[in-house]
Amino acid sequence: MRNAYAEKVGFVADLAYKTRRLIEESAEQHGLGRLTKSVTFDVATLKSLRGEGGSDEGKVFNLVRGLQHEIDEDPAAAPVLQPLKDRAERILKDLEERKTTGLAAMDQLAALAAEKEAAMKAARDSGLSARAFAVAWVLRDDAAVKAAGIDPMTLAKDAEELLGRFPNASVNADEQRRLRASLYKPLLALAQEERARVVDLVVRLLLAEGGE
């Protein structure tokens, strides 16, 4: 049973790798991967690229690739950046399928870059660690949390304090249990099932590998 499970996990990982390579090779064949320089996904870069030569398609591809690189380099920022990357990839897919133009795609990415900078500024201004801020960011549009009148930023600050109380929760089962129990108190306004869901989500964000 264990061997079968390991083989299944290995197959899925291998399939994901091959799929990613296939997409990249396809993009290169269509001229979307011709730029070779490292590209940072931000407003300044978007403005600079608009004035450079080369295809907008290639610029879009490398901007999306740059956003993925940023997530790989800073896993703690992934909860904030991943939804933006998902939207950026949809823009790239529309471009590849000729559902939009290169110019329109660049405009859409510029809007995403502005949104990203606003999120990063909010993270810095919050004074919270990347892990704790991710709690506020991910839950800011959560329907159940909104309906219960819970302030995501207040919850994030509570989470920050709990990280200090239970610094070894990621490797110590007893500390993680106490962390979970402490998170239930600020979430009492939620129904039981929703409370359990949000606690699970918050714990995953707080104990994510690579966070600071």
Quickly count the helices: 10
- Which class of secondary structure composition applies to the elements? mainly alpha
What are the segments in which pLDDT stays under 50 over at least 5 consecutive residues? Answer: 1-6, 29-36
N-to-C span: 37 Å
Largest sheet: none
Task: Give the beta-strand count.
Answer: 0
Number of domains: 3
Structural overview:
This protein has 3 domains: 1-30; 32-126, no CATH class; 130-206. The chain is elongated. The chain is an all-alpha fold. Helix 4 runs antiparallel to helix 5 (102-126) and helix 6 (130-139) runs antiparallel to helix 10 (192-206). The chain has helices at 2-29, 43-50, 56-73, 78-96, 102-126, 130-139, 143-147, 152-165, 173-184, 192-206. It has 10 helices and no strands.
Core attributes:
mainly alpha; 212 residues
Tell me briefly what this model is.
The protein is mainly alpha-helical and 212 residues long. The protein has helices spanning 2-29, 43-50, 56-73, 78-96, 102-126, 130-139, 143-147, 152-165, 173-184, 192-206. Helix 2 packs antiparallel against helix 5.
Topology diagram in text:
Layout: H1 2-29, H2 43-50, H3 56-73, H4 78-96, H5 102-126, H6 130-139, H7 143-147, H8 152-165, H9 173-184, H10 192-206
Helix pairs in contact: 2-5, 3-4, 3-5, 4-5, 6-8, 6-10, 9-10
